[in-house]
Design goal:
Elements (H helix, E strand, L loop, with lengths): L5 E2 L15 E4 L6 E5 L8 E10 L8 E8 L6 E7 L10 E7 L4 E10 L7 E8 L9 E5 L2 E3 L2 E5 L15 E4 L14 E10 L9 E3 L6 E3 L11 E3 L24 E3 L11 E2 L19 E6 L3 E4 L4 E4 L5 E5 L1 E2 L5 E8 L9 E7 L13 E6 L3 E5 L2 E5 L9 E7 L4 E6 L2 E3 L17 E2 L5 E7 L5 E6 L33 E7 L6 E4 L14 E6 L8 E4 L8 E2 L16 E6 L2 E5 L18 E7 L6 E3 L6 E6 L4 E7 L5 E4 L8 E6 L8 E4 L7 E4 L7 E2 L1 H4 L8 E4 L3 H4 L4 E7 L6 E7 L8 E3 L2 E10 L8 E4 L13 E2 L13 E3 L3 E4 L12 E11 L7
Length: 847
């Protein structure tokens, strides 16, 4: 049994071993920023700004977070690059805004269609300006994580050869605040690292970063060019003081130092020099890397997080839970601290600990499978609702509370000021030796949380190791960051799954390469290809696999029998290639039928899974099967012949599958049957080809949970009629690559966040309650940027792609429901999901 602990996502090391040692935290509450006034004018037409940012990542409403700006600090002008919230747009935010405001209107402005609300990882932002360009759209270029942003809701470019306010001696330069007057609500909140300004050149991201050829991850690299007159490079590495020659020092050689304002390098909760970095590497017990933060996407409505998402605040009463950002694999020992900076005596109302994934957001303080400390008039340790009284605690402000979680041995210790409480409330706990834990964990899938239950205004300040701990962590326990977490077994999801988009051309024998929609360009030979015409509602979802044989077609939205290759008149996958697949016309010489795969000029998507190659006979069950199993990625294709009696079928995965969908091939009229770990029990099944809710169907899976070697089938004709032939696609969870689970809808546009432990490339969701809801499918190839993951296709329907709403955000660590529709986030509905990775959590960047 393992205990996954929720922590921030992992990041991979940089190209060539380049290491970013520190970042600087900017606290909006303190209006922290850097400033500099130019003594000599720079190039006002051509420049480049490059910075790595990890910011608060949620809709800021009417507030905005300025990354870099210039202005006179009055109400006449402001020019810069800023995250703006929904208060500046009719759509939910937050967007990137690049603009020059003249006091009454914008001289020029670009506002991204893409939103930026991932609080758990680092973005790399590059802004290149060259107003000499003849083509307007070439005068300002914006890049995020190495990719140029081309979709803007507002796109008004500067006139050719016009001067911008950048480089002007008339205005002050700011990092972390707006140059406009009264800009208290325009201060940046979050972290910045490796900040470059190149005066006189419009550069591309390749000057500052590079895509790893194996993982496809965008990584920083050292800039080696010149800087120009007013260029600078801030790495924030000297934290010996909060001065222009220390934390604000320019390392370009130009001496263009910056003055810190309301930036602290004094030990305590306001300390702003962090070792939170886009590049993980060894550094003592802590290590450098992307660190855990509290998650504003999983916080109760009466609470908020701020100060680089390390402060949890509430003044409205009731319990609000805030979780550290991402799941850790089931191994390791981790340590964190929490300081109550503003609560004392009877109104303290603060708690922290670990709670099971299944625990409702606002119930962590008293639910089963919640293990935590809670302090009000008295202190209590609570184990699944059982209270332990603690007498030896200090009830005053600015106390350090401690949490040690031993995932390997399923133990949790809670303490204060280096005194660790045991299971009776005594002080004999010792994480270093493993003795006398406060709790022994009896479940799996947990999150770290903080809670606040008071009508007074109070704060929890979390520290996961991005600044110095108040106390030395117990022996063997580490900080919660990317370097200290186990590497995922699959470094690039494209090695095992691809979502490939293409446009039909009606050409016979066309080959589709599957590396085009991933940054690394990695290709693989698929064994299952699932194709859907996105443009038309007349064409089915069609599936082809190597075990049944190229050209043999099934449709996920139909109960039809398998259409044999020789009888296929509409178009098919005729071959599975080393880098994709080949499309051929059917016997009628057309692509225009129900199973269309290449009809011109329609848009298509092909989802592809790598199996195990040539199928082999598997006799581990009572029914002999042919199996192509990719055990590394948890996927197998199984064909078998039914017996009409309760039986078992070998799946070849070596671990129990969590998701199976099976179809009768030899006759029409039978539904696709689905087993999913999130269904009420194995006595239930659900249909892939309908909107129906789960139903009691003991004759499908024989009310038996799959094992590591077989899945069970009952006597139902959908899965086991005597003499009938079947195919089953089986999936098991692989940490960092695939996840299968369930969640409860809220009916709110600020819906639940589902942790997958990776940055998803593919998500399929289905309601199992209420008798409504399509099988919604989204992927990052059709929608490359949040919030546009509203482009839905439906496994159970031939409908064309729908972009009308009900969006989700695909994040570095999972996905969050943004729409209110019953298909994915209806109030009171329960949903199951399948998610596959683009990049594992130890490699991913923010979306």
């Amino acid at each position: 049994m393992g205990l996954p602990v929720e922590v921030n996502n992992l990041m991979m090391g940089a190209v060539g071993g380049y290491q970013i040692s520190r970042s600087l935290r900017f606290r909006n509450s303190a209006q922290g920023h850097l400033s500099r006034t130019l003594s000599v004018a720079g190039n006002r037409r051509t420049l480049t700004i490059s910075a790595w940012v990890k910011w608060r990542g949620y809709d800021t409403g009417s507030a905005s977070d300025s990354i870099f700006s210039v202005g006179p600090n009055n109400s006449t002008r402001s020019t810069g690059i800023t995250f703006i919230g929904s208060g500046y747009s009719s759509s939910p935010g937050t967007f990137l805004n690049i603009a020059q405001f003249n006091g009454s209107s914008n001289d020029w402005q670009l506002v991204t269609s893409q939103v930026f609300r991932d609080p758990s990882a680092w973005y790399h932002i590059v802004l290149a300006i060259d107003t000499s360009q003849a083509t307007a759209s070439n005068r300002i270029k914006l890049y995020v994580n190495g990719v140029q942003v081309t979709a803007f809701s507002t796109a008004n470019y500067p006139s050719q050869n016009s001067d911008t306010d950048f480089g002007s001696t008339s205005y002050t330069q700011y990092i972390g605040r707006d140059g406009y007057a009264s800009a208290s609500n325009r201060n940046y909140d979050g972290y910045m690292a490796d900040f470059y300004y190149v005066d006189g050149q419009a550069l591309t991201p390749s000057s500052f970063g590079e895509t790893d050829a194996i993982t496809g991850v965008w990584n920083p690299k050292k800039y080696s060019g010149t800087y120009g007159t007013n260029g600078f490079y801030l790495n924030f590495s000297d934290n010996s003081g909060a001065t222009a020659t220390t934390i604000g020092k320019d390392y370009s050689g130009n001496g263009n130092n910056w003055t810190p304002n309301n930036i602290s390098v004094t030990a305590g909760t306001t300390y702003d020099s962090m070792i939170d970095s886009p590049t993980p590497y060894a550094d003592g017990n802590s290590g450098r890397g992307n660190y855990a933060v509290l998650n504003p996407l999983d916080t109760g409505s009466s609470g908020s997080v701020s100060a680089g998402n390390l402060t949890h605040s509430s003044s409205g009463g009731g319990v609000t839970r805030s979780n550290a950002s991402i799941r850790v694999p089931s191994s390791g020992k981790f340590y964190a601290e929490f300081i109550n900076s503003s609560a004392t005596n009877a109104n303290i109302g603060l708690g922290f600990g670990v709670s099971a994934d299944s625990v409702a957001l606002n119930a962590a303080y008293n639910a089963a499978n919640s293990y935590h400390f809670y302090a009000s008039n008295a202190a209590q340790a609570m184990n699944s609702g059982t209270t332990i009284s603690i007498s030896s605690w200090t009830n005053s402000a600015n106390q350090t509370f401690q949490l040690s979680v031993d995932v390997d041995n399923s133990k949790v210790w809670i303490g204060q000021n280096n005194v660790w409480w045991d299971s009776s409330g005594g002080t004999t706990g010792n994480p270093s030796t493993g003795a006398n834990p406060t709790f022994s964990i009896s479940s799996s899938g947990f999150k770290i949380f903080t809670s606040i239950d008071t009508t007074s205004s109070v704060n929890w300040n979390a520290n996961f190791g991005q600044r110095s701990f108040s106390y030395t962590p117990p022996s063997g326990f580490k900080a919660l960051n990317s370097y200290n977490l186990p590497a995922a077994s699959i470094s690039n999801g494209a090695k095992h799954f691809a979502a490939t988009t293409y446009t039909g051309d009606s050409v016979d024998g066309r080959s589709i390469t599957n590396g085009g929609n991933n940054p690394s360009g990695i290709t693989m030979q698929p064994d299952l290809v699932w194709i859907k015409d996105r443009s038309s509602g007349s064409f089915w979802n069609v599936l082809f696999d190597s075990v049944r044989g190229a050209g043999n077609q099934l449709s996920s939205n139909q109960t039809d029998a398998e259409l044999a290759s020789a009888s296929n008149v509409q178009g098919k996958v005729s071959a599975f290639n080393s880098n994709g697949f080949t499309l051929a016309k059917g016997s009628a010489g057309t692509y225009s039928g129900l199973g269309s795969v290449n009809y011109s000029p329609d848009a298509y998507v092909a989802w592809q899974w790598k199996g195990g190659g040539t199928a082999v006979t598997n006799n581990s069950g009572t029914i002999s099967s042919q199996v192509s199993a990719n055990t590394s990625a948890g996927f197998s294709i199984v064909t078998y012949t039914g017996t009409g009696a309760n039986a078992t079928v070998g799946h070849g995965l070596g671990v129990a599958p969590q998701f199976i969908f099976a179809k009768k091939r030899s006759a029409a009229g039978n539904s696709w049957r689905v087993y999913h770990v999130g269904l009420t029990s194995a006595a239930y099944s659900i249909e892939l080809n309908t909107t129906a809710a789960q139903a009691l169907t003991a004759d499908v899976w024989n009310s038996t949970v799959p094992t590591s070697s077989v899945f069970s089938v009952g006597v139902g004709g959908d899965v086991n009629a005597s003499g009938a032939t079947y195919v089953a696609y089986c999936f098991s969870a692989v940490s960092g690559f695939s996840a299968f689970g369930k969640y409860n809808g809220t009916g709110s546009s600020d819906g639940p966040m589902i942790y997958t432990g990776f940055r998803p490339r593919f998500v399929m969701v289905k309601s199992i309650s209420g008798g409504v809801g399509d099988w919604e499918v989204r992927d990052s190839s059709r929608d490359i940027a949040n919030v546009s993951y509203s482009s839905r296709l439906f496994a159970n329907s031939s409908a064309a792609e729908d972009t009308s709403g009900f969006a989700i955000d695909l994040l570095s660590n999972g996905f969050k429901c943004r729409g209110t529709g019953t298909n994915s986030n209806g109030s009171g509905y329960t949903y199951i999901y399948m998610a596959l990775a683009e990049a594992p959590f130890n490699l991913s960047r923010a979306r």
